[in-house]
């Protein structure tokens, strides 16, 4: 009995080490031979923020948000996090096909390691967010920051479950990459990532109702609520989001465990 426990513990330790190797390798390869290196992580959301701030700051002044620059930056950074979770998870098996075909290991590690890169990128981008918060002297509450961390982790769980489906499907149907890219592009423009809905002459009530019907809109509102910028923290949303995410993860894991055994012929 003890030897069996020791063997399982040893295997788990090896899997954790392998996961860490995948994370480090993917992160280094992504910015290899790049002059700016890791600063490219911050470049896209920061440049998007600067451009959108110049365009939309006039509407932000007339809205009910707390501090528009922080409102805008939190939206851009959090959407970038979601976008990377979806894309990295979707492409995780294809990008590691040369390893998967040669080495035997739990394929879930390949998926999770890709998602962890998106999480690392988020924490790097949060440096910019908290710098802007410091400049604007926005007072943050501990419970708000804990709620923000909860949302970050729950979205990670949700996208992990999603990736266990999309990573398999993308191997067989390569067009899914373009479909997801288009979907994320449309989601960026159809949710209040960079604009506000209050006192905005560009939207009539039907457009506002449509935008508010998108679940990601509510997630963005809750992210901003955690910073004390917009809306109030909604425990019912948090609980529902967590239950849905865990359910998707469990179903996705089980489906992945069965289907991943048959993917080698499609690489």
Automatic annotation (TrEMBL):
One of its GO terms (cellular component) is plasma membrane. Its main location: membrane. GO terms for biological process: lipopolysaccharide transport. The chain crosses the membrane at residues 34-56, 68-88, 109-135, 147-171, 178-197, 237-256. Residues 19-226 form the ABC-2 type transporter transmembrane domain. GO terms for molecular function: ABC-type transporter activity. Keywords: Cell membrane, Membrane, Transmembrane, Transmembrane helix, Transport. It is a multi-pass membrane protein. Belongs to the ABC-2 integral membrane protein family. InterPro entries: ABC2_TM. It is found in: Cell inner membrane. It comes from Candidatus Dojkabacteria bacterium. This is ABC-2 type transporter transmembrane domain-containing protein. It comes from the Bacteria.
């Amino acid at each position: 009995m003890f030897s069996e426990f020791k063997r399982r513990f040893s295997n788990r330790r090896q899997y954790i080490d392998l996961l860490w190797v995948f994370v480090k390798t993917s992160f280094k390869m992504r910015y290899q031979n790049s002059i700016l290196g890791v600063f490219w992580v911050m470049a896209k959301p920061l440049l998007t923020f600067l451009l959108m701030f110049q365009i939309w700051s006039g509407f932000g002044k007339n809205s009910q948000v707390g501090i528009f620059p922080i409102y805008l930056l939190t939206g851009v950074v959090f959407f970038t996090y979601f976008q990377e979770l979806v894309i990295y998870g979707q492409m995780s098996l294809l990008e590691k096909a040369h390893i998967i075909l040669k080495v035997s290991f739990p394929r879930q590690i390949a998926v999770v390691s890709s998602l962890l890169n998106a999480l690392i990128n988020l924490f790097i981008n949060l440096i910019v967010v908290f710098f802007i918060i410091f400049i604007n002297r926005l007072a943050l509450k501990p419970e708000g920051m804990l709620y923000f961390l909860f949302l970050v982790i729950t979205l990670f769980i949700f996208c992990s479950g999603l990736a266990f489906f999309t990573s398999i499907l993308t191997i067989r149907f390569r067009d899914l990459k373009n479909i997801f890219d288009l979907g994320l592009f449309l989601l960026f423009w159809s949710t209040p990532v960079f604009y506000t809905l209050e006192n905005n002459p560009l939207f009539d009530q039907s457009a506002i109702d449509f935008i508010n019907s998108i679940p990601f809109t509510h997630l963005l509102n809750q992210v901003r609520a955690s910073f004390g910028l917009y809306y109030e923290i909604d425990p019912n949303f948090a609980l529902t989001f967590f239950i849905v995410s865990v359910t998707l993860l469990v179903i996705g894991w089980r489906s992945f465990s069965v289907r991943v055994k048959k993917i080698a012929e499609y690489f």
